[in-house]
Amino acid sequence: MAEFEVTPWDVSGHVDYDKLVKEFGTDYITDKQLKEIEAITGDLHIYLRRKLFYSQRDLDAVLKAHKSGKGFFLYTGRGPSGDMHIGHLMPFIFTKWLQEKFKVNLYIQITDDEKFAFKQNLSLEDTRKMAREDIANILALGFSPKNTFIMQDSVYTQTYPKALEWSKYINFSTTKAVFGFENATNIASIFYPAVQCVPITFEEKQCLIPSAIDQDPYWRIARDVSHKIGKGYPKTAAIHSKFIPPLSGLEGKMSSSIEGSTIKLNDTPKEVKNKINKYALTGGQNTVEEQRKKGGNPEGCVVFEYLKMLMEEDDKLLEERYKNCKGGKVLCGECKQYLIEKLNAFLSEHQKARAKITDKDINKFLLK
Amino acid sequence: MAEFEVTPWDVSGHVDYDKLVKEFGTDYITDKQLKEIEAITGDLHIYLRRKLFYSQRDLDAVLKAHKSGKGFFLYTGRGPSGDMHIGHLMPFIFTKWLQEKFKVNLYIQITDDEKFAFKQNLSLEDTRKMAREDIANILALGFSPKNTFIMQDSVYTQTYPKALEWSKYINFSTTKAVFGFENATNIASIFYPAVQCVPITFEEKQCLIPSAIDQDPYWRIARDVSHKIGKGYPKTAAIHSKFIPPLSGLEGKMSSSIEGSTIKLNDTPKEVKNKINKYALTGGQNTVEEQRKKGGNPEGCVVFEYLKMLMEEDDKLLEERYKNCKGGKVLCGECKQYLIEKLNAFLSEHQKARAKITDKDINKFLLK
User: Fold this and answer.
1) Is the minimum CB–CB distance between A167 and chain B shorter than 8 Å?
2) Are B117 and A167 within 8 A, CB to CB?
3) Which of A155, A181, A190 sits opposite B191 (nearest CB)?
4) Helix (H, G, I), strand (E, B) or coil at B264
5) What residue ranges of chain B are covered by domains with CATH 3.40.50.620?
6) Separation of alpha carbons A336 and A347, rounded Å
7) What CA–CA distance (Å, rounded) separates A299 from A286?
8) Do A164 and B113 touch (CB under 8 A)?
């Protein structure tokens, strides 16, 4: 029996990220690569330092393309649910950093078609509405329409002809093997993997896709097929992240569908406070006395994990907190309070920026 | 073992049209329906009189919609090959007659995506080029852009979102059962049936599709699904034709891929003459003497079949020719000569009209 499962639609159990690298056939991001990146960018993003992004395909080809002057472009995406949480924002924060540091174009795919195809009870009108809300949340991070382009699948007029090119070279067997499609799967879902490949050929350059590792099956298919598209394209490169765990524990991933497992982008400060205090799993002992005596377990603590992965950019402060927890000098309530403040500061800024995004802004980014 | 096969991609053997009606679950066009049509149209098209169009689904609903003032619209299509023959033109000639008599809108689908998906060696650029040539040939029949609209699948910008709506309710099992798709079928082909359904919901009215009966499997699927699309649409009606046989015999259908089996729309008078004289199967006897004595067999004669189905509009002249053949009064060479003249007169007019169709004309008809 599998201890954990990672598919584009489901992440459950205690994910063994080393096993995923082996199973998916990806490579780790090496220290050598991190140094190369740092030499170009001047610093390393927290997600790279803390190994939230930890796996890759053909990252060397990307760095080579950059150094040679040929350049590359970025592609990432989002399946709209209209209810984004901080885990959803993470790849966009990272991609924006890459975009600024490497000065490259970015294509963001919004897969309103995917959500319509896979969710029985959603209409296309529903997922299109969710798409607009998600785009607003993404744009709140401060992307520029000069080098950022959004492909909303059901709106972009070239989705079908471009997906056609990919779909000719992908057969049902492949989608069965890679995604577990069955005879009862609808043909919208069966066609969809071709749509997710489309942005890879938006430029005649090396493509780099930052995404959570559950999306890698798509890139595997794309890498098998891309030489057959048009006059042939290079295999896309990818850089894969781990998942942000739910508040309630270190298994699976944060999911809007599980009550109390997520910090949503539109949560109020009070909601954040209540959720952290009520649901966040810590590695603390049963009593204050015991904690002071034995120390806590930051490795088993969601609060520490969130600080490490998302919110505590200062390496020294993080190290200190780790030691203080282990040594029984800091109590869980204090760490929770610190995380609540960090999250609310982040959300307050985000919500202000989100409120300023208009329909007109969104339209500036949409590919026609 | 099947004596004949009829699928959207292959027609072979001596087609038993009565068996098809049973197998597909369609209905015959009744004399009562023909009388109703004639009462509205004033006359009956040769294809109806001679039962080239012989089967239907929900034709009564169409006539009812017409009489009630609600009206209906027409939809027919073509998979571009760039090498149209007279058999390909037949449904368009008939549809144009219906359009003029009933004064209704017509949507013509040009399935450049289908040909790309199903033909290994064709690029999308190839099938798009073929599409333009085929559209020119169709427009040469004299359609008006006021009530005729062309959906070129890979060019129309709404193909994907509209096909998505259908594709959610069609699963792989259905396409397997209806079209014989296999695990090795590419996902472009698997998705395609949803695209062929799209024009059925172009208007919130009853749709009537004139087509050869091999396309009926698509309409069967569409009729099962249409109530789920948007707020729900009526089941499409259909009117089905038999196939124009190849020159070489009464089995299968005229096909551009079989040398000498077709009269192409761009054939010269000399080519037509040579093809008829060289390839056309007749029901004649071995010698002139025998023919004079025993008479010929018009039922087994492709030349007579072409005159009956396509070229001899005069019922009396056809009847006379039939009797004269049976009675040995007319020889095969004379019938061939008569058919050559008829075909060349038709093609000469068609080619003149085709030569006048410009790119600008085509663009007037294309749905954006």
Assistant:
1) yes
2) yes
3) A190
4) strand
5) 5-247
6) 16
7) 17
8) yes
How many residues does this entry show for chain B? Answer: 368
* Contact assessment for residue A275 and residue A340, using Cβ atoms and an 8 Å cutoff: no
B133 near B80, Cβ under 8 Å? yes
Give yes or no for A224 touching B (CB within 8 A).
Answer: no
Q: How many CB pairs under 8 A join A and B?
A: 109
Q: Where in chain A is the domain with CATH 1.10.240.10?
A: 269-355
DSSP for residue B3: S
Beta carbons of A171 and B186 less than 8 Å apart: yes
Contact A60, A33 (CB under 8 A): yes
Q: Which residue of A has its CA nearest to B190?
A: A187
Which residues, in sequence order, are CB contacts of B5 under 8 Å at separation 6+?
B11, B12, B13
CATH number, domain A5-247, options 1.10.10.60, 3.30.70.20, 1.10.10.10, 3.40.50.620: 3.40.50.620
Q: A172 at the B interface (CB within 8 A)?
A: yes
B191 → closest Cβ in A157, A159, A191? A191
Pick the CATH number of A269-355 from 1.10.240.10, 1.10.10.60, 3.30.300.30, 3.30.2130.10: 1.10.240.10
Any B CB within 8 A of A121 CB: no
Which of these, B246, B267, B243, lies nearest to B255 by C-alpha position? B246
pTM score of the predicted model: 0.95
Burial class (CB in 10 A: 0-12, 13-18, 19+), B43: exposed
| Residues of A with Cβ-Cβ distance to B184 under 8 angstroms | 171-173
Q: HSE (CB half, 13 Å, CA atoms) of B273?
A: 7
**Average pLDDT score, chain B:** 95
Q: What is the CA radius of gyration of chain B?
A: 21
- Looking at the DSSP assignment, which residues form a beta bridge with residue A240? A55, A211
Closest residue in B to A127 (Cα) is B161
Cβ of B168 and A116 within 8 Å?
A: yes
CB–CB of B161 and A124 under 8 A? Answer: yes
For B138-176, the pLDDT digits (tens) are 999 999 999 999 999 999 999 999 999 999 999 999 999
Task: Please report which helix (H) or strand (E) contains residue A343, including its range.
Answer: helix A332-356
Let me know: does A284 contact A296? Beta carbons within 8 Å: yes
- Interface with chain A: mutation pick from B172, B176, B196, highest number of A CBs within 10 Å: B172
List helix spans (H) across B151-250.
159-167, 172-179, 187-197, 216-225
pLDDT along chain A (368 residues), means of 10: 78 92 97 98 97 98 98 97 91 98 98 97 96 98 98 98 98 96 98 98 97 96 94 95 93 80 95 96 93 95 96 97 96 97 98 98 98
